[in-house]
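We emphasize that the prediction below concerns an isolated chain of 201 residues; any contacts that depend on oligomerization or on bound cofactors are therefore not represented. The input was used exactly as deposited, without trimming of termini.
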Amino acid sequence: MKLYYAPGACSISPHIALCEAGIAHQIEKVDLKAKKTESGADYLAINAKGYIPALQLDNGEVLVEGVAIVQYIADQKPESGLAPKAGTMERYRLMEWLTFISSELHKAFSPLFNPAMPDEAKKIFRARLAQRFAYVDEQLAGKNYLMGANFSVADGYLYNITRWAKRVELDLSGCHNIAAFVTRVEARPKVVEALKAEGLM
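Result of the prediction step, given as a token string:
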């Protein structure tokens, strides 16, 4: 498998999943402005949507959209425990978290990364994000991870998105459970492996 990524972007989530699952893979950096890969390939020919992540499978097929990719990875190595068994209520709880992170956290950061967005508007988006993170903080009370005691692909995704808070001056200092969660995730050897591979630590 080959993961197309951009350092610090949302592709760190599937990268963590690949490392945690112990799946052999390659990574290739993408210049998102030029739409070129590190080897000089036209990225739009790989993913017509033009954004990352994209996972090229061993049979040549390409899977895009982070939420789909991380579940695919988890299902290749069910013994990794990265996702509950398909069809179980626990799996739907995982999907619930992945959807929430994608729609309520991930996409809500987009206006804050937009230099054309007025500062007054950014204040509104920061306030909305702070409310969403406060909810997550409450849900993490008494838990190691979102689903309880075990790390899942939802945790890799939440960690990925939470890393962006400092970049957009989003104050999460009151979210003590999230702070403990981040420390816990960053202590995982496979997370360190993914971060180092992307030059993020």
